[in-house]
## 1
Amino acid sequence: MQMLATFNAVKELGADVIKLNVWDTNADFDILHCWGVGLGNYENIYWAKKAGKKVVITILLEYLENLQDKLKFNISLLLHRQKLAKQMLEWADEIVVVNKDQASICIHNYKISSGKISVIPHIVSDIFFDAGKSTTSKDYVLITGNVCERKNQIRLALACIQEKLPLVIIGKILDGQQEYGEKLNNIIKDQSDILWIKGLDNTSNELLSYFSNCRIMALPSFSEQQPISMLEAAILGKPLLMANKPYAKQEFYKKSCLVDPVNVTSIQNGLKKIVINPSSFIVDKQILEKCRSKNAGKDYIDIYKKLLA
């Protein structure tokens, strides 16, 4: 989604961009822009550099929260996937990350020069910016995204049941997470105040309506980089509830209510705090302008121009 959003944003601003076709023998391009440092990009980047092309990589990096995470990363950096990732980042002429914390990870963990790192946040669809702040809201809490253990919908549902707050869940069960989905369904099946909608188009008016009318936007997820759903809700002026994890402490989510994702009572207490004083947990919209497609698109075009100067 973000690859396509960026592709469309820079194209609308006049950039001559095409999607990579590995079967096309025409090498008449100046810059290869790759998303991520998965093994699938390794040879594309290698041969682009061999052909004298400039390389831009947009990357989402994992936060290393404990000693076990750091140990696994350092072993992988010596022997496995992270070793190849570091090589690709070293080959890149410019690296784009979504926030300052991820830039620090790139610098300190991969030993990449800060001079070739840029921060450009995720792009949020213009429909959220154009909608403006809703003058009315209903009582429900909203959570969107794939239903899976990482997103933590079950504990949120239990907290909402305890707090007697209606909940709307929007998202399909992630592949491999059927057992978690069934457990969630068993918990909510007799709860008339909980609605589970198994997927909506990301730019649909129906989805926008659910965002616009919610009372609280929640995501007590165990792991994220820069969750777009929370950016979307913040743009609409909704109070945010998030897990007390590194991803929730970036500038785009300042003032959000942070809770312990393992503790249902902590999530419940967070919901209660927002109900009592919602304005205390609303993000300053001005900083979110960076996520508007034309602004993020311009930042990418500036990188392309710099590399070709």
## 2
Amino acid sequence: MLAEIAFTPAIFDDTLQSNAEEWSEQIRELGAAMFPKTAACPVVVSNLYHGSWQHEAAEIIKAIANPNDRVRCQSLLDKIDRAFVSRPSKLEWPTNEDGWGKVAIASHADVPMDRIVFTDSCHGRLIGECEEIRSLGEVTDAGFWHGVPRDGSPRFDIAYQVGLLRALTMHSQFLWFASPHVRGTNDDETDFAIALIRKAFDRPTSFSKVVVEVHAEAPDRPNNADFASRLSKLQGNLATRLREALRSGESVQVVMWPKLLDRVVIGGTHSALSGGGKATSPRWGVYLGHVARRVDPPSIPPTGWHILMPNAIRRWHDLLSSANRISCVPPFTVDG
């Protein structure tokens, strides 16, 4: 889910395409598949060399001879702008498509991508260097999009399921996991939360830092006399287990809610506030019908995951960042 695709800027170079009509159709197919009008965008796009890819692609598009092709390519680049994720600079500055291809391959070695797309000629020269290399000519084939789903029923394996969220765990500057079944025991979803947290923190130092929150459900019946003791036990269990995911200098904030019904992962970026501090800007979200537990039997029925549409991402973000929390249960921080 949320596959990461890297392109060489040369996919927009009209002088490098063997068939102008087929190239035009390939660009159209990329736009339709990556940015459907009535479904969630299933990809992020690598802005290679710390964002220089975008400038390079824009300059190439300006030089396209056919005005219709130029408009079509510019339209695709404008859409890609909403899906960019920054990739750190690698190797020397690339001066041709082979150079950009090698940059993408080197970046892929740090954090894997799902596709690296070259023009057909460059694909032929570099195909042996990486299994994820594809040619632009393949994008009109159904096989190119296999494994780039907007929804699915992932098998019940914690490592596999967390791996499907790689784009969020690698590129989010903030990552929120909400589940009513994270209680700090060995038979709930704490193991999934631990694996997700560890994956988020285990990014190369050249990538941005991440702030992680776990949103869990507080004990019921808050007006009962034993609520304080039940809450203390739950918080102690959570702190003990979540600390397993942390190393020195790392921390996770735990937010307790009176009631949670669904499981979601929300990720995004930070933006600076005028008075100091940072605001969260949501970019991605995945609804998790169910997540794997250590105790799940192999015969458990399939569940449904799906990428959230932008309005749903904003709605979940606003809900989880709102003041609609139990007033007597402030968030607490677990340190490594």
## 3
Amino acid sequence: MTERNKFMDIYDYLLEQKEKIDVNRWLIVVLGAAVILSVGYYGYNWYKGNREQAAQKILAECMQEFASAQVGDEPWSSVEQLCKLGYQENSDTNCAPYFLLLQADAFAAQDKKDEALTALNSVLNSLSSSSELYPLFATKRALLMLDIETQKDAGIEQLKQLANDTSNKQRDMAAYYLGLYYWHNHEQEQAHKVWQELIAMKQSEQSQSPWIALAQEKLQ
């Protein structure tokens, strides 16, 4: 089984568990899985050099610290500092953006939203826009921007762009969160419009989408 297939299997499993966890927590779990599996998927040659081996080992330590912080066994400040050190020591390796990704979550967990946004911007700048992970992380950035008053309008626009981008394989996810933003802000009519377009979009593509089920639950 390829690393990409492993990623999709775990992704599908997490979707099945979506009703057991809130939306934001679900996204963090998916991103964590993406980090672990994308290391193997995009880094088949990382073991070719001692430097890359060392970077991957430190990244694994950061992931372990991250998991501990999620259940309350470690403070998020420890994750932040460990990832900061990991990035400083391995900024020239393939692991570099993933240190920043974990650090962004650590910042957000401590309500350091501006710092989290800076870290996510660095992550996206380091990835090719053609990467399958790019829209996933871009959606995460847009959601974070919605929580920053001065960035809220830009965050909404980014979600709209992601939702309307026909080349974005994750645009159904962006559309769901765009509708959810309107829903939580008591703009039910706008939320209904976005979700109905999401349902119609996927029906026209004759493809399955777990985000449709979530949207349909809200519409009912």
## 4
Amino acid sequence: MRRSDLVVAIALGVGVLGGCSSTQGTPGAAGAGGSGGSAGAAGAGSCDKDLTGAWDLYATSLASGSVDGVLLVSASGFDATTSGGHLVYNAQGTKSATWARSGGGARSITVQNTSGAVNGGSIPLALGGSWTLTSISETCTLNVASGSVTGNCHGRAGDHNVGAGDWPYGTIPSPENGFNYLVSRTSTLTSQFGDFGGVWTAGSDSGSGQGCSITLEGNSITTNCQASNEFNGVMHLTIGGDCVASGTTPSGLEVSARRR
């Protein structure tokens, strides 16, 4: 996974999963509120209340310098651009997503959602309910409730992980096909992320022994994972009152984001 893609994966993984306009740029109707968070124009309001806006994403290491990406997010959707490609999700009207690898054509991902009552706190996107994401070769289902998240994916015969030319492999975390994933909250904590505040455990029925403990408290996210990828180990991310997020990945990569 490219380092800039890892930054976007972290941003999306902690809850920035929603929609955007179909072209790169500021997400449409940024001032519209959603059931996942509060209303607010892009860049307006303190980040403990609303994460709406355009975010510059950075990943830095002493060995190879820095790389960057851009994440645009509002109640209408998100638009993520990295060196690996461009992912857009439109949450208005008929939900849809497009993915394009760098230098490649755009591929469509069909999005179906039956909404559910989940308070995402400062996250401006409506996240709750059941989701089905379908590309040419992959289908993933996800159910997001206030105390649990479950999901699974199925792809072409022989495809071990979700990831093909029409799927944003490397830009969002890529699960294994054919297994059931469960993220469950074991205790609640006060957090700017609303119903997601607390201590969570994440794993699957793959028998691999891989999994994570995830803590969302106040303005911080901490993960402690046993995994065969860049998330193995402890990661801590804090969102400051100045709308700057910063942290360090298990591999020692410094990641940060700043709202414009």
